[in-house]
Amino acid sequence: MTERAEAIHFERQPRFRRLRDYLATKAPPGKLPGRRQVDPLDIPDLLPYVMLVDVLRSPGQSPRYRVRLVGTEVVKIQGADGTGKFVEQILTEGPDIIAGYAEILSTKRPQYRRGEVATVGRDHVFYERIAFPLASDGDTVDMLMFIFSTDPATTR
User: What tens digit of pLDDT does each residue of 92-137 get?
Assistant: First the structure.
């Protein structure tokens, strides 16, 4: 389930709220923050739960999404490290996920998603995440920054 991130999602998950508040302090007035404004040393407690995805644009084509970084806890959730791969190469629900990413590019607003990851040989992992748009020029989204949670009290 994908939807616009609302206040209730941030209030339920302190990790989500912390990243939202941090990014707000890094954004220039009226603009989106860029990756260069994010200092990992400011948010070491969040890094295991973070994933970064590059937005690659080519004229006349739909954007493609390549995984740049996957935190250790995200690897546990997903069952693999997708660093360097395109989203459609690693996710079976790739078209739905990509449609959601395209929505973030057009709205420039964070997006909430709740779901489960099914991997052979282990229990399904229920998760929720928020994807935040980042823009090196403050306007054109060129990266998505995700924060994940598997808190059983809120993910089912």
Answer: 666 788 899 999 999 999 999 888 876 656 667 888 999 999 999 9
Amino acid at residue number 65: Y
Other CB atoms within 10 A of residue 116 CB:
12
121: left (phi over 0), alpha (psi -120 to 50) or beta: left
Q: Which fold has domain 2-155?
A: Beta-Lactamase (3.30.450)
By three-state DSSP, how is residue 147 classified?
strand
Contacts of 25-32 with CB under 8 Å at 24 or more apart are 27/138, 28/138, 31/135, 31/138, 31/139, 32/108, 32/133, 32/134, 32/135, 32/138, 32/139, 32/141
Q: What is the pLDDT of residues 24-64, one digit of tens each?
A: 999 999 999 999 999 999 999 999 999 999 999 999 999 99
Count Cα neighbours of 53 within 13 Å in the Cβ-side half-sphere. 29
